[in-house]
UniProtKB/TrEMBL annotation:
It comes from Sulfuriferula plumbiphila. Pfam families: Cytochrome_CBB3. SUPFAM superfamilies: Cytochrome c (SSF46626). Keywords: Heme, Iron, Membrane, Metal-binding, Transmembrane, Transmembrane helix. GO terms for molecular function: electron transfer activity; heme binding; metal ion binding. This is Cytochrome c domain-containing protein. Coiled coil: none annotated. Residues 186-215 are annotated as: Disordered.
Length: 215
């Protein structure tokens, strides 16, 4: 009996020693990795230029992280029942034309001066559908380390939902249909000139959707 007890005690001590050895090895590797990352970041070697793409593995991991984050944070959002309201869609069309087309394009607009320099490339929302909950969350909160701003800092939820409503109708819309709905959109004093709208003449100004010459 004593022999068995001593054997079990020795086995327990051996297992404990093996576990501690692996724990120490893991901690040492973690320390080396942390120091390596610190040296890499501190050296300035990492290229943050927008025209220098991520490594494929980095890009893939960021894509997964972004997708999971959007799914998690937008899951509790309740979509309003009036997204098909024509007036809501009309308001959203004006907002989209004023704020979004330089990055996300529009029917008949294949590129912009700004878009080629963006990384990662924003989706062409005239060709892809977006879940309304995800669209609302992204428009309101933006996305870190991208060109997507948090419009919720300057726009209320009702306005953001109008943009979401318009996005549900945008894919498949013809250039003529797009221009028609933008032309009918209500004027917004807080927005700049809408895509396709007339710019004021030098010295002039705009208000209420009308352009006036300078005095």
């Amino acid at each position: 009996m004593n022999t068995l007890k001593r054997a079990l005690t020795s086995l327990g001590t051996l297992l404990e020693w093996e576990i501690m050895k692996h724990v120490k090895m893991a901690l040492a590797l973690l320390l080396v990795f942390t120091l390596g990352v610190g040296i890499f970041i501190g050296s300035g070697i990492f290229n943050i230029a927008a025209d220098s793409p991520h490594w494929k593995i980095t890009y893939a991991l960021l894509q997964v992280a972004r997708g999971r984050s959007l799914a998690y944070h937008s899951s509790g959002i309740t979509v309003p029942a009036n997204l098909n309201d024509p007036q809501l869609i009309l308001k959203g069309a004006g907002q989209y034309a004023a704020m979004c087309t330089s990055c996300h394009l529009a029917p008949g607009k294949e590129n912009s001066e700004l878009r080629p320099g963006l990384y990662p490339q924003p989706p062409n929302l005239s060709k892809v559908s977006v879940d309304p909950r995800v669209a609302f969350w992204v428009i309101k909160h933006g996305i870190k380390m991208s060109a997507m701003p948090a419009w919720g800092m300057s726009h209320d939820d009702a306005t953001i939902w109008s943009m979401v409503a318009f996005l549900q109708k945008l894919p498949g819309m013809t250039p003529a249909q797009y221009q028609e709905i933008v032309a009918k959109a209500p004027p917004d004093e807080d927005m700049g000139p809408m895509d396709g709208a007339a710019m004021p003449a030098p010295g002039g100004h705009m208000h209420g959707g009308h352009t006036h010459a300078g005095d």
